Description:
Shape of chain A: globular
Mean pLDDT of chain B: 95
Shape of chain B: globular
Largest sheet of chain B: 6 strands, mixed
Low-confidence stretches of chain B: none
Largest sheet of chain A: 7 strands, mixed
Mean pLDDT of chain A: 95
Strand content of chain B: over 45%
Order of helices and strands of chain A: EEEEEEEEEEE
Oligomer: heterodimer
Helix content of chain A: under 10%
Number of strands of chain B: 11
Largest interface: A-B, 25 and 21 residues
Strand content of chain A: over 45%
Radius of gyration of chain A: 13 Å
Structural class of chain A: mainly beta
Amino acid sequence: EPEVTQTPSHQVTQMGQEVILRCVPISNHLYFYWYRQILGQKVEFLVSFYNNEISEKSEIFDDQFSVERPDGSNFTLKIRSTKLEDSAMYFCASSEDPGRTYEQYFGPGTRLTVT
Amino acid sequence: QKEVEQNSGPLSVPEGAIASLNCTYSDRGSQSFFWYRQYSGKSPELIMSIYSNGDKEDGRFTAQLNKASQYVSLLIRDSQPSDSATYLCAVKAGTASKLTFGTGTRLQVTL
């Protein structure tokens, strides 16, 4: 069964450093998303991406965040200057053409620890 | 602020019983509703989607939607210890792409 994959599974970085989280969405999916979940809290939407551009973003997704689809398979989230409060699980998700279904499938996540 | 509310639990049910999980939402423009299961330290796993008022059944799971009452629920029949997890309710508004999640209800199925 096709699935979303993410790398790395765990990333430790120092405050102020840049990190890139990588995702390979399900191959025939057209919509891509990033969510995060701070330990013990709810899953929060960051950004959605469709047709090579940002479709929607939340207030959390400020100038320190960016997304990119560098090739036909990868989807990345870059955090330019990490802060302690960026420590969280980051989930990538994908969905088919929204005209067919809105179901979003999540990857296993990347645990980001900022020290 | 569009909210999705769930009782955090834990909801404890004996093995073989029916577990009933509830969710309310504030945005009347919400069109699509989802239940995800999340085991500790893992990612959300899609269980059910429901778009129309009424019931939708898939195996041991039944999702129920009442848009007038802004209420969606998940019933799990013949609960198993492996069903012990946190169940997340997620809602998508009409034109938005994002899902808004509740805090989840922790379900414990006891032997």
